[in-house]
Amino acid sequence: MTLSTSIHVVAHATEDIQKILTKMHEVFLIPTEKFLISKAEGHWGNEISVIRTECDHNESSALLERIISRLKIGEKNFLLGSISDSFDEKNNFYIRLSKQSVCKGIISLSEHDSIRIRFKPIKEFNQNNKFRDHVINLFTRK
User: Fold this and answer.
1) Taking the model in full, what pTM does it have?
2) What is the per-residue pLDDT across 92-129, written as a single tens digit (0 to 9) for each?
3) Which fold has domain 3-131?
């Protein structure tokens, strides 16, 4: 399986960016120096930091397995039951994790104030829904 991954996080001015980076490194096992930080203005004129990174195939495969294996059984079942909602027309798999939980060392789903992750299959792996089948197998294996 050949994958790439992009991670996107918004940090508000009141949040400790270094703590977020450190915890993402500890939980995701991605070196902190790989994360790029840019400043932006929020909807209400407040300063926000946008944290992004791209992962190569080896990091992506390990990250996908790490996330799925550390989700609680109820969250795995929820995602599995709505798996088609997590894939787009290009067979990219999207997952949103709680930024607050990651900062506590826990992997948990969240739609609000989340770490957005996109796993993108490379073309040869994208044929005949092989990637989707692989993700489903990760959820269902013991």
Assistant:
1) 0.89
2) 999 999 999 999 999 999 989 999 999 999 866 555 67
3) 50s Ribosomal Protein L5; Chain: A, (3.30.1440)
